[in-house]
């Protein structure tokens, strides 16, 4: 058994020593590759559309399916982190999710494809474990930065997926496979990676800096597992405001990850590879933008408290909504890319600020709060998906409506007080 450690007060991203830093790197890396399984299909949708003969409405349904299952999964996974521990939870999720990712190529009908997209969507719950694990591994003075960097580098997978999956597809075509077979074979690659990561995560991480839940129970005679955390998180109105806020930022991010390549391809006539690269630049900004939001939130929080963090989040959401509305009005490719990069910056910073607030809602129910707020991101994506599946609303109109909705949520965040309140502590289970 490893020596007990404490949460780190400093994030040294070049360090791999100790339980907290090893967990930090494994959790963002696992989340990064979860995007390959979750959205690996998105940049290949042009080929899949032709192969399966999908309509615009059917494509919209698959987009909704890819994020709908994650809503329930994130809430359940958050509760499991509090009770079962993040190490076992993440390992199991990676292993189970790899199955539909590797076998989605077996489908030949719209109905089967829809069911597989629904099953694959469960992997999106990986984000909750990532944020939970970094929240317990780092001190409160730096937790916003740690969460944002881990989440941002993980979200980077959404952009890299758009760039890399068309290349993997092209490689299989180069080996002599027809496109209808190449996209199916391409999806096996991320599935195998997820299986490898499941083993690595189980072997090389711990639930907390002090050790695993089971180990701590043996040492102390009691368990850190908490009961009643989900109800506790759900009773706090701040949880639900953050639920809406995350729907307005991360919800729109994963919607854009799903639709961007197809949007650029159909609206501006770009090739599949070019569309993937343009969509990839949106996700690539996670390399720094989400981290910047977390760093700024920590600095604002240290000086102005939770009220300052709340105002910062409201401002970023307002700027994001304005940027999306402008993107919707662009008719030229270059202008669309510039507008996209603009709203992407504010959106991803808002992601980071949201989860710089989450760990302070209730330290005893971090997993449950994180799960509910994370589910909000997917609820936002589901609602946005209905706009994109409509036969009477163009993609440009859908983006305009989304921009207005984000601005409205920004106003709600601005009037919400995120200051600490006295809350009932959850029951602690005895091992």
Automatic annotation (TrEMBL):
Domain of life assignment: Bacteria
Key words, A-Z: Cell membrane, Membrane, Nitrate assimilation, Transmembrane, Transmembrane helix, Transport
An example Gene Ontology CC term for this record: plasma membrane
Membrane topology value: Multi-pass membrane protein
GO molecular function (one): nitrite transmembrane transporter activity
Transmembrane segments: 21-39, 59-77, 89-108, 114-132, 153-177, 183-202, 240-264, 270-289, 310-328, 334-358, 365-386, 398-418
Compartments in which it is found: Cell membrane; Membrane
SUPFAM superfamilies named in the record: MFS general substrate transporter
Alphabetical list of InterPro entries matching this protein: MFS (IPR011701), MFS_dom (IPR020846), MFS_trans_sf (IPR036259), NO3_transporter (IPR044772), NO3_transporter_NarK/NarU-like (IPR004737)
Primary localisation category: membrane
Domain Major facilitator superfamily (MFS) profile: 23-422
GO biological process, alphabetically ordered: nitrate assimilation
Keyword check for Transport: yes
PANTHER family attached to this UniProt entry: HIGH-AFFINITY NITRATE TRANSPORTER 2.3 (PTHR23515)
UniProt similarity note: Belongs to the major facilitator superfamily. Nitrate/nitrite porter (TC 2.A.1.8) family.
Record protein name field: Nitrate/nitrite transporter
Species: Rhabdobacter roseus
């Amino acid at each position: 058994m490893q020596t007990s450690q404490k949460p780190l007060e400093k994030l040294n991203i070049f360090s791999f020593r100790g339980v907290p830093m090893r967990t930090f790197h494994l959790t963002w890396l696992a989340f990064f590759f979860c995007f390959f399984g979750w959205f690996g299909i998105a940049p290949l949708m042009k080929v899949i559309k032709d192969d399966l003969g999908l309509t615009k409405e059917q494509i919209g349904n698959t987009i909704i399916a890819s994020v709908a299952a994650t809503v329930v999964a994130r809430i359940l996974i958050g509760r499991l982190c509090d009770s079962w521990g993040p190490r076992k939870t993440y390992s199991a999720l990676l292993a189970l999710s790899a199955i539909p990712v590797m076998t989605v190529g077996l489908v030949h009908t719209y109905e089967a494809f829809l069911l597989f997209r629904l099953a694959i969507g469960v992997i999106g719950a990986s984000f909750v474990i990532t944020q939970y694990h970094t929240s317990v591994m780092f001190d409160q003075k730096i937790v916003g930065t740690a969460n944002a960097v881990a989440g941002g580098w993980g979200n980077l997978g959404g952009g890299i997926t758009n760039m890399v999956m068309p290349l993997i597809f092209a490689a299989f075509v180069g080996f002599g496979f027809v496109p209808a077979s190449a996209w199916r074979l391409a999806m096996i690659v991320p599935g195998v990676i997820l299986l490898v990561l499941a083993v690595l995560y189980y072997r090389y991480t711990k639930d907390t800096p002090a050790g695993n839940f089971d180990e701590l129970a043996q040492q102390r005679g009691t368990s850190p597992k908490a009961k009643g955390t989900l109800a506790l998180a759900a009773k706090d109105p701040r949880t639900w405001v953050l639920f809406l806020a995350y729907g307005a930022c991360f919800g729109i991010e994963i919607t854009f990850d799903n639709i961007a390549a197809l949007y650029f391809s159909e609206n501006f006539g770009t090739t599949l590879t070019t569309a993937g690269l343009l969509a990839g630049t949106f996700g690539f900004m996670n390399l720094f933008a989400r981290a910047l939001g977390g760093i700024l939130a920590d600095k604002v929080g240290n000086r102005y408290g939770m009220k300052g963090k709340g105002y910062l989040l409201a401002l970023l959401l307002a700027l994001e909504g304005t940027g999306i509305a402008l993107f919707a009005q662009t008719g030229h490719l270059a202008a669309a890319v510039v507008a996209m990069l603009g709203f992407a910056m504010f959106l991803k910073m808002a992601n980071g600020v949201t989860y710089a607030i989450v760990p302070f809602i209730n330290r005893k129910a971090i997993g449950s709060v994180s799960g509910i707020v994370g589910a909000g991101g997917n609820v936002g994506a589901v609602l946005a998906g209905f706009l994109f599946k409509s036969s009477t609303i163009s993609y440009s109109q859908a983006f305009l409506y989304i921009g207005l909705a984000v601005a409205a949520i920004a106003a709600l965040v601005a009037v919400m007080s995120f200051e600490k309140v006295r809350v009932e502590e959850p029951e602690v289970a005895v091992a």
